[in-house]
Fold:
Amino acid sequence: MSRTVKALLALVFAVVGVTTAATPALASPVAAHSVLASCGDTSGYQHVALSSLPAQAADTVKLIDQGGPFPYPGKDGSVFTNVEQILPICAKSYYHEYTVPTPGAPNRGARRIVTGEGGEFFWTGDHYATFQLINRDS
Structure:
């Protein structure tokens, strides 16, 4: 299923009030905005405590903070272009993505942390269909 289709389905589920198994029940993630948010405007995003995410997310944040080494060096740290425009609209190189390993997955899995140049850390457990702003202090 394409990212666009996933984003549209997530939006439909958000409007209808249905959650999917891939979406954590911690808080309602933001699938899309009715008005595109300007760069740095994270006011419309639900927050999620880092401590409530899978343990691998905290491990990935530590790797990001120390500059690696990352499990997927060709992919981790690469530019996330935000083509779906679910995150606030910023310069093309503003966001970078990192894999959050999924135990038992035969590939990179769907979990990512996307960072912004302004210090934002976003969690997606469903391969960019929805995002939550990570509160790293909890």
Summary: Confidence is low (pLDDT under 50) at residues 5-28, 31-35.
